[in-house]
Amino acid sequence: MHRSFCLLAVLVLPSLLPAQTEKPLRIAVAGLVHGHVEGFLLNPAQKRKDVEIVGIFEPNTALAATIAKKFGYPESLLFTNLNTMLDSVKPDAVATFTNTFDHAMVVEAAAPRHLPVMMEKPLAVSVAHARRIQQAAERYGIQVVVNYETSWYASHGAIWDLVKERKSVGGIRRMVAMDGHQGPKEIGVGPEFLSFLKNPALNGAGALFDFGCYGANLMTWLMDNQRPAAVMAMTRHIKPEIYPDVDDDATVLLEYPKAQGVIEASWNWPYGRKDFEVYAERGYAIATGGNSLRVRVADAQEETRTPAALPADEHDALSYFYAVARGKRKSTGLSSLENNVIVTEILEAAKDSARTGSKVQLARKP
After folding, report:
1. What is the pTM of this model?
2. Of 91, 116, 149, which residue sits at a domain end?
3. Do 145 and 160 lie in a common domain?
4. Rounded CA gap, 175 and 286, in Å?
5. pLDDT tens column, 4-45
6. Are residues 116 and 32 part of one domain?
7. DSSP string for residues in 161-223
8. Residue 73 in contact with residue 42, Cβ under 8 Å?
9. What total of structural domains would you count in the chain?
């Protein structure tokens, strides 16, 4: 009788105990000069219990102090040396908000420590930098996430479902991406952010890299990571008094065997926009922002659809990065390193085309 009671206790009592919960994901922040750091990381992190900011690397001590005061971080979290921070706080993952030039440096520091890295788009300022990131990631087996706001648009998920899953409209024939705003200075970005956006060495180019990456990312995704055969581009300096060293307007044509991509990236739109249009053999889908979608299939009339919500771990950058860093999923699709190396090849080819006035051929494999 006593033995039976003990056995019952062994079987029942563990189920009465509270469930074990995962410790918060310890995130180190590499850089603060990219203005998206607050919206994509610091603000949402304060509202979550499953993530914790454990260190901030930022050489600009005035900027670091301002952010620390705003978010209530102690001075002990601030570092001016990346390697010192990584060794001191021993994070689980690194979120990068440096200028684009420094992305390779951050990945090369994080990779030997086997830390996954998330960075703001675009991946790199050049193909050479993209290859450095790729080689470090592959050598040490780390995941790299490239964050685009448009990756979390339900409208884009609905286009994928329509074209790829349901195969409702046949093969893609034309894609048009229109991205940008009135200009970084015009919309009032912070001085540190504006400074590197205007610097071709730190940003890769101007509007071409800043907003051309969105279209290249989406088109590469829908074309199943197929490189375009050729790239042609034209860039312009409409406001040289504001942006003397970088383009502020770019139009890029991507040539595929049976499709064409048109990227319109600009700091001269009359308003901010991130719109994407896909035209196929038997229909089209037009996304205006994240939740507006117009679709026409075959002979039916155009209809406005409300796109289904994305899964919880694809809802926003921090949720996605958490899932990747915890090993719950791989960095794939729009956020993947494979996609974004191709995006960098497209952007570099576009810059070369604009400079020379010639079409640039891309090899099928690097």
Report:
1. 0.93
2. 149
3. no
4. 10
5. 334 334 444 444 444 446 899 999 999 999 999 999 999 999
6. yes
7. IIIIIS--S-SEEEEEEEEE-S-HHHHT--HHHHHHHT-HHHHSSSHHHHHHHHHHHHHHHHT
8. no
9. 2
